[in-house]
Amino acid sequence: MKQHYRLIILGGGTAGISTANRMLSEDKKLANDILIIEPQDHHYFQPGWPLVGSGEMKLESTRKPMSKVMPKGARWLQEAVRHVDPVKREVKAGNRIVKYDFLVVALGIELDYDAIEGARESLGKNGVCTNYIYDLVNYTYDTLQNVKAGNIVVTKPQSKIKGGVSAENSLFTMDEYVKDHDLDVNLVFRSGSNEIFPVKKYSDNLTAQLDEKGIDYKLEQELVEVRGEHKEAVFKDLGTGELHVIPFEMLIITPPMHGPSVLEDSGLLDPEGWVSVDRHTMMHNTYTTVFSLGDASSLPTFKMGSAVKEQMPILVKNLLERMDDKAPSHKYDGKTACPIATEYGHLILAEFDYNHMPEESTFLNQSDDKWLFYQFKKNMLPIMYWYALLKGKV
Length: 394
What we know:
Layout: E1 4-10, H1 14-26, E2 34-37, E3 42-44, H2 49-53, E4 63-65, H3 66-69, E5 74-77, E6 81-85, E7 90-93, E8 96-105, E9 110-111, H4 119-122, E10 128-129, H5 137-146, E11 149-156, H6 166-180, E12 184-191, H7 200-212, E13 216-218, E14 221-227, E15 232-237, E16 243-247, E17 250-252, E18 257-258, E19 290-292, H8 305-323, E20 336-343, E21 346-352, H9 371-389
Parallel strand pairs: 1-2, 1-8, 2-5, 8-19, 10-17, 11-12, 11-17, 12-13
Antiparallel strand pairs: 3-4, 6-7, 7-8, 9-18, 14-15, 15-16, 20-21
């Protein structure tokens, strides 16, 4: 393996793989001069996991061997990043040190179950579930099928999270499951956020849905402790500091999340722990040979694959300009899409920009839940993900 590459990409997730493919298609001279550093054996289609947890998708369909998605023309170093020095333009991965001309940071987001007392040791038993770990997603649906009474509690932290509406997708589809099976079960939603959704057009509809369905929901309520054996979830009121205990038969945890901790001493992160980049060009605010997109970046929008779809082509154009010693000229306006299943077969398709203004791609009213949107998420989105977005063809 070479010791120096024109471009090194940190991370083999959606952002990293799609960027590599697009760069190779735009500049053929980069063949064998792009290195992707990624330790995992498999690549995952994580937007499907809430549907797996609700019984609408098979878990096996959401992953492929990493070797199958690596771009032809890119090299793969299967090691974990240990250190990045943007001054020397060096990356240490495993025991190797490799140098770069340009760097794309796409390390994703880190799950912090340890921020919740008792959460990690409770997962996968006593009805404590999560849709963020591949090996535990089937347990979510298994648990749902066995709940006959009591509370199903769905949580969402105040921190930024990947798949920004994963909790809501679980909440609404499970509510319909409960009603379809005529169960004596209460749906409870507790969110650390101070709003249901940041865009009023969609927030109004979601709030109406919560009220009409009789879902018990409260904001600014952060999950701080799980008492798995006692089936109790402890929430902290972020306004008053008071603690509230809710009994559960099933608990679906969306854990707090944060940026890549391996970069803490690299000089690449902002004070909140995200890779500090210009919100429009995605070039680093200090180091002009570094770019970032997706979950690891400081871009102030939802951390969704649909955001990467919009970010990646613009980043590639700007990176190619920088490689040609030009200033990046292309601008990302923050557009992203959040598909929210309000029941089996119906979905709201929220699309908006940095200013939280709707930027919709159809002539339909996308704040109304539509059968068409749901079919797209369930049946078309996986195909588009594997064969278009990952290939850089968007």
